[in-house]
Amino acid sequence: MSARLTEPVLRVDNLGVRFDTPRGAVNAVSGVSLTVGAGEVLGLVGESGSGKSVTLRALMRLLRRNATASGRVIWRGEDLLAAPERRLREVRGREIAMIFQEPMTALNPVLTIAQQIDESLVAHRNLDERARRARAVELLDLVGIPSASVRLDNYPHEFSGGMRQRAMIAIALAAEPSLLLADEPTTALDVTIQDQILKLLLGLVADLGMAMILVTHDLGVVAETCDRVCVMYAGRVVESGPVSAVFASPRHAYTHALLRSMPSGEAARQPLTPIQGQPPRLDRPIVGCAFAPRCAFVMDACRAATPPLMLVGEGREAACLAADRLAALETVA
Amino acid sequence: MSAALPEDAAGEISGRKRTRRLRLTRVPAPLLAGVVVVSFFLLCAIAPEAIAPYDPIAFDYTALLSPPSLAHPFGTDQFGRDILSRTIAASTIDLQIAIFATIAPLVIGTLVGLFIGYYGGWADILFGRLVDLVVTFPFLVIVIAIVAVLGPGLFNMYVAVSVIGWVFYARLTRGEVMVLQQYDYVAAAKVLGYSQARILFRHILPNAARPVLVYWMTDMALAILLGSSLGYLGLGAQPPTAEWGVLIADGKNFFSQAWWITVFPGFAIVLCGIGFSLLGDGLADLLDVKR
Known about the structure:
heterodimer, A: 333 residues, alpha/beta, eight-stranded mixed β-sheet, 34% helix, B: mainly alpha, transport (chain B), cell membrane (chain B), protein transport (chain B)
C-alpha cells in the first residue's frame, strides 16, 4: 500500500462550499485542495461537520440548491464545476461513481435490484437485454452476493444491510467507473460486515484499477485501507500525506490529538483521552487556526492568522505552527 | 470483468415474473372487503339493467308509495317506480362522478406537485399562497359558487371540482417529493448520470404515489358525497336522471309516509363510500412494504 506516484486523475483546487441559510451564510468547506492518482485510495477523515461529505458531494455537484461551490475540480483536465449539465451527466456514473452511507435509503424501494442495475447498464453501456441480464448476474457475483441470479429479482427490503451495500456497489460499478467516491460506506454496518465491505472495496479497486476517495470518521478504516489521507477540520484540510507516515508521526496538533483519543489495544479499562471542547461554528468568521481553542500546543501566532498548509516531509503537508514541536515530540518518545 | 453470458440467463428472465405473482397473495383484509364492495357497485354501474328487477323509470300506478315488500324490496315512490331499480341505475352516474370528478385533479395535481416539489423556487412560494387561499374557503362553498356561475349540470360540476381539487393532490405530492429528495437513492440516481425526467418519473414519482393513491380512494368517496349533495341541491345531475342525491331529494317531501324513498339511496351512498375508504386503507397496507 505505497503511495503511487502517478499523474493525478482528479485534482481539486481551492474548493469552497457556502450554504446560504435564513440565519446567514455557512462556510462548510473552504480552501480544500487535494489530488487522487489513478488506482489510488485517498482517505478523507474528520469528525461530524468537518466538511468531508460536503466536499465529496461538491465534486459531483450534488449539493442542495442553497449551496454555492467555488474553486476548481479538474477531472482528466476538465473542470467539473464549470462543465455544462449534459457533459456532467456523461461523467456521472460512467467515469465517476458514488456509493452512500445509508444502505436503507440508497436503493429505490419500488424497483428490484435487477431493474436498478439494468437501468445503469442501459444508461452507460451498449448491451442488449440478454447481455445486460448476464452482466447484472456477474456484477452481483463480483460483489459477493450468493446465488446472484435468484437474488437479482428481489426488492431492496428483502436484502440485509450488508447485502444492500453490496448491491449498491454493484450498481455503482455497472459502468466500470475510473473513480469511486465512497461516502462513509461502512458507518451504518456492524463491525464484521464493515470489514467484509472494506475488503470487497479494496479488492475491486485493485482488480479494476479504480481510484477511490473514502470518506470516513473511522481512523481504523483509514489505516487499513487508504494509501494517503487528508485530515479535515472545520471545513479545511489540516494535514495530508501517506497514511503510514501521518499515523506514525502526525504533524498537525489536531491529528495528534485525534490519534491519542483512540483506544489503544494494550491498556484495557484505561480512561480515553478525548479532545476537550467543541468544533467551531461555521456560520461565523474564524480568525486564526480553527483548532486553537482546543489545542494543547496553541501559541499566540495561532490565533492571529490561519496557518497555511506547509510542506512537512516527502508528500506531506500540514497547516500547523506546532509541526516542528510535534516532530520533536516523536523523536523524544 | 468480461461479459460472459451464463447459460441459464434465459431461464432467469422467466423466473422474474414468478416472484411478482407471489407477492399478490398477501392481500390485506380491508382491501379485500373494499374490492368486493366497489366491484359490486361497478357491476351495478356497468350493467344496471341486468341486475335491476324493474325498469327504473317505468311508472306503476298499481303500486304507488308501497313499502318494502318481496315484490319491491326497497319499496316504490310516488309514481310507483321501484326504488331498488332506481338505486342500482343511479350507481352508473355516481361512479362516473367518483371517477370524472377526481381524475383531472389526480393527474394535474400530482404532476404540478412533482415539479414544484423537485424544482422549488418562486413557483413553490406562489403555490404556497394558492394553497392558503383555497383552504381558507370551505370546499363545498367554492364548488357551489363556481357551479352557480357556470350553470347546473354534471359537466360543470366536474369543472368546478377539478379547478379546486388539484390543489390538494399537488400539496400532498409536493410534500412527499420534498422528503424523497433527501433520500440517497435520488442522489444516487443523479450521480449515475440519469436524466431529470428519468429521476422524476421513475425514481421519485412511484415512491411518492402511495399516499396520493390512498387519498384518491378517499377523494372518490368524497366526490360521491359531493355529487349527491349537489344533486340534492339541484346543481348536479338533473332529474329525471337517477342519481343518489337526486333520489334523496325526490323522497324528502314524502319522508313522513315513505321513508324508504330517501333511506335506501342514502344507504347506497354510505356503503359505496365505505367501499372506497376500505380500498384506500387496504391499498395503503399493501403498498407499505418498506416502512
